[in-house]
Amino acid sequence: MADDPLALFDRWFAEAQESEPNDPDAMALATADAEGRPSVRMVLLKDHGPDGFAFYTNLESRKGAELTANPQAALLFHWKSLRRQIRIAGPVARVCDAVADAYFASRGRDSQIGAWASDQSRALDRRGTFIKRFEQYEHEFRGRDVLRPPHWSGFRLTPERIEFWQDREHRLHERRLFQRDGDPANGGWSEGLLYP
Q1: Per-residue pLDDT at 2 exceeds 70
Q2: Three-class SS string for the chain?
Q3: Is residue 118 domain-resident?
Q4: Active site residues
Q5: According to the model, what pLDDT value does residue 166 have?
Q6: Global pTM?
Q7: Would you say residue 134 lies in a domain?
């Protein structure tokens, strides 16, 4: 195997951080509900390493409910400036409370308060209702730390498949697929190419 896929991800991600004008950590997150109906949205990668790729959300949101009912997901990073994309798929699991607490504590205060004020993915009668709720929680937490809401945490996707796509002339793109195979001789991954 020419590359470790996680090390290759690190290299491409570092290059994206240098070249992408906005949010190089933005990724499409695809989920499906218990009946297999798909849904996709953009989220931000907040941590990654040998144990997987982490993001955070309201557990009562649509994505939170879908990940709880069907703990499989796919991620897509698309870096237009580099003409590259990476697709990652595998099972997801909630991060532990200590990890969620630590990340929540690192967020800006207004984002912390917003996590309390938002009934994410549920119907909202008008924007003013949300602003009023935000102001109520802002008053409630005045002069003290904002604790992580019990309905807010993170998920970590453990990759089983990672595909690296590189744009090439005449649509002769390069696609490298890494699949977890558990063989320690090759770092636990097998590698192959796909037709574009």
Answers
A1: no
A2: CCCCHHHHHHHHHHHHHHHCCCCCCEEEEEEECCCCCEEEEEEECCEEECCEEEEEEECCCHHHHHHHHCCEEEEEEEECCCCEEEEEEEEEEECCHHHHHHHHHHCCHHHHHHHHHCCCCCCCCCHHHHHHHHHHHHHHCCCCCCCCCCCEEEEEECCCEEEEEECCHHHCCEEEEEEECCCHHHCCEEEEEECC
A3: no
A4: 171
A5: 96
A6: 0.93
A7: no
